[in-house]
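Protein modeling request. Please complete all fields; requests missing the sequence field cannot be processed.
Requester role: graduate student
Desired output: 3D structure, token encoding
Chains: 1
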Amino acid sequence: MKVGVDLDKTLAIYHEWQGPDVIGPPIQPMLDMVRQMIANGHQVVIFSRRANDPTNVPFISQWLDSHGLDCEITAIKSRDMEYIFDDDAICVEANTGRILCDPKGALKQLGIND
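Delivered output (114 residues):
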């Protein structure tokens, strides 16, 4: 099974942009979960907006290596990812449009009443 995991604010601590070579320390519970998924035979893909610029990918790769992770890196969430872990996502119930979670209060910011 292929699983997508966001880098900044999901797998690594992030507060503000400090450059492509600065990636925060790991978020230990998520790092442990990713390691467990890999140990269970799942393919974990790390996605990040950073990877939109291919010159940033070596920094991500180095960070992953330093934390014992050997994962594909992409900037794109793909259809073959069975699950996606991402701090920005608004979770929507399948085939209903019902919002299940809105972690950043996007609906309010967008002027949408629930």
